Amino acid sequence: MTRDVAAVVGEAGWATAAELQRRISARAVGAWVAAGKLVLLRPGVYALPQAAGEWRVRLAAALARGGVASHVTALALWGLVEHPPGPVHVTVDLTRSARGSRGVTVHRSAGVDAERRRVGSTSVTSVERSLVDTWGRPAPLSRADVRAAAITAVRRREASVSELADELARRPRLPGRAELARVVELLAAGCQSELEIWGCLQVLRGPGMPPFVQQRRIVVAGEVFALDAAYEEVALAVEMDGAAWHGSRRQRERDIRRDALLATVGWQTLRFGYRRLTLHPEDCRRDIRAAHAARRSLIVGNGVR
Question: What is the pTM of this model?
Answer without folding.
Answer: 0.75
